[in-house]
Amino acid sequence: MNIDEARVLLKENGQSHVLNFHDQLDASRQQSLLRQIAELDFSSIRRMWAMLKSTSGEDENFPQSQPTPPDVMQLTDEQREAASAAGDKVLSKAEVGVLLVAGGQGSRLGYDGPKGAFSVGPISGASLFYFHARKVLSLSRRYGVHIPLYIMTSELNDAATRSHFEQHAFFGLDPQDVIFFTQNMWPALDPAGRIMMDRPDHIFMSPDGHGGTLSALHRRGCLDDMERRGISTIFYLQVDNPLVEIADPAFVGVHAEQQADFSVKLCTKRAAREGMGVVVERDGHYEMVEYSEFDKPENHCLTALNQSGELIFKFGSVAIHIFSYEFLKQEALRDMPLHIAHKKIPVCNAHGETLIPTEPNGFKFEKFIFDVLPDAGKVVNLAFERADEFSPVKNADGDDSPATCRRDLQLKWLRWLQAQGVTAELNFEGLPLLPIEIDPAYALNADDLKERGFLLRDFSAPPVYDASVK
Ligand code: UTP
User: Fold this and answer.
1) CA-based Rg of the chain, rounded to a whole angstrom?
2) Tens-place pLDDT, residues 93-151
3) CATH class of the domain defined by 56-397
4) Average pLDDT, the chain
5) CA atoms of 103 and 157, how far apart (whole Å)
6) What is the rounded distance in angstroms from the CA atom of residue 277 to the CA atom of residue 63?
7) Contact between 263 and 322 (Cβ < 8 Å)
8) Whose CA is closest to 311, among 323, 319, 303?
9) Would the CB of 239 count as within 6 Å of ligand 1?
10) Rounded to whole angstroms, how far apart are CA atoms 248 and 3?
11) Residue nearest to atom 25 of ligand 1 (CA)
12) What is the pTM of this model?
């Protein structure tokens, strides 16, 4: 794109100010600004501005009618066994791929690097990526197949994510089976709908939300890659939860048997206003209501109690999903709803200096993956045991922090050991006095551990993720 084309495009879209500093920049910075302008998605920017104008910050497409609780499957031991057998078949046919979204900025954690590289291993100090990758490795070995791991990054953390995998020899995975792809970046708008610049030659950009996964899978060729590999079933997880049971065969089995488009794992909420989305049925389809939307009048019932004092909508979603390939493909090019957030955004002043605001001064927009739920013809909601599968690293301290995550990892492994009659001395929190850590490539669950037995390793020596543990 040349400067004349950029001028016309920006003028048509009421964004001419983006070139305010252009004439004062050297040639290479001018080029870099023009490249950024060429990549802007003006149709989405027009939608963002329309949304900002028309709703004063309300999300688009808000529904009107009252929701009802969804049907949630709760498997008996027998049903779980049957579902696992069905899942084993899908996994053995090499039809399962794993989709890990790791493009977020992890601002609450405040870690300087990709969140996936954050250390959670109680003994080894291994990263969140280590736990996910070693589970995929373990499953690939168990079923004797290649399980592709698609990792969504953003421009802000792509290079660091790739180098983390390279430094750790892909945690034992075949690099051909680890596919990195970047999500789209969006500008922020000021209250007048103007694209915000953080430097004279630079537009402030941030990732377009985990809902950006769908279009990114398409644009970066991952859907084609899945088709080439014959992937029918895509297990979706977020980077911050190392307890997730990746491609849990029972979940895969239920999804397959029900021929579902979209399956969701749900757990019991701890409090009415816990920060989890809630699946509801409304107007004949399922949808996910984010906790930030509980205050809308039509959603008040989501925090209400029944006569026994229990939550009527007692299940929350923790972003553990399975998609069918066909459904992902169908949704990839769809315009998803936008969600808006009022944020502190660095801005460039009239003198070309960058100012960091102390109060929110602009609007970021994001897409959420679960907004495709209403389009799904067949949905499975499966209840799961929270303690075994969910303890994310979201905050630097307090709830959902590295400390609670390491604790919950150890409590899970402790239960596996106790199932074999091991007794451990516990502290006042119920945690073992000696820390526990189990490499997922050694044992994925209590049964694996029982089968393989356990050995004591010297963790003062090399890290466990050198792929030597078979
Ligand atoms: P969160 O909503 O917890 O956001 O993401 P975050 O960016 O990790 O953390 P905060 O809110 O800035 O503190 C949930 C999952 O979705 C991914 C994240 O990487 C995480 O796995 N995500 C989020 C993306 O991949 N892209 C995005 O644009 C946003």
Assistant:
1) 24
2) 999 999 999 999 999 999 999 999 999 999 999 999 999 999 999 999 999 999 999 99
3) alpha beta
4) 93
5) 7
6) 15
7) yes
8) 303
9) yes
10) 53
11) 103
12) 0.94
